Amino acid sequence: MENIAIENKMYQMAIELIESRYPVGWGGAAVIHTANDNYYSSVALETANGSAQLCIEVGAMCDAHKFNEKVTHCLCVVRDDEKSSFKVLSPCGICQERLRYWGKDVLVGVTTSDHQLKFIELSKLQPHHWSDAYPAEELEHFEE
Q1: What's the confidence (pLDDT) of residue 129?
Q2: How confident is the model at residue 136 (pLDDT cuts 50, 70, 90)?
Q3: Most buried of 92, 97, 103, 128, CB within 10 angstroms?
Q4: SS3 assignment, position 5
């Protein structure tokens, strides 16, 4: 499936999950696509202690990892309330580190000033990543 079709499907899946899981108020959802053409979605774990919270994408990443599938795309979408427009959140630094498990070429949805759906390679989001100090074979987890 072409990247644009995958990306549009992911965006639609995220919106549908937000609308069903959070019919009123704030909402956020993430969708991950894998090399096996599977889609995994997740929401943020809500806790009373903010330091125990996890990013919206973590559940979907764990599903991909559980099934030993290579992540190809990651997208996080939020809205402020049921009357607000949807917006894409670029992965935070911790999620960028988590996604690096699947390589520099993972495509991630990024925040844009014009609110357009845009994906870029993780390596472009982190052009000076610490892992460049080591040989690639020391850090690779997946065989293509």
Answers
A1: 86
A2: confident
A3: 103
A4: helix
Provide the greatest CA pair distance for the chain: 49
pTM: 0.91
Could you tell me the two tokens for 22? 């959070």
| Spatial distance between the Cα atoms of 41 and 27, rounded to a whole number of angstroms | 14
pLDDT value at residue 73: 98
Residues 6+ apart with CB under 8 A from 17: 29, 31, 41, 43
CATH superfamily of 1-138: Cytidine Deaminase, domain 2 (3.40.140.10)
Q: In a 3-state reduction of DSSP, which class is residue 125?
A: helix
CA distance 13 to 53: 23
Kindly report the backbone phi and psi dihedral angles of residue 121, in degrees, each rounded to the nearest multiple of 5, phi listed first.
-70, 145
Distance (Å, whole) CA 32 – CA 55:
13
Q: What distance in Å separates the CA atoms of residue 54 and residue 8, rounded to the nearest whole number?
A: 25
- Dihedrals phi, psi of 72, to nearest 5 degrees: -110, -30
Domain boundaries, the chain: 1-138
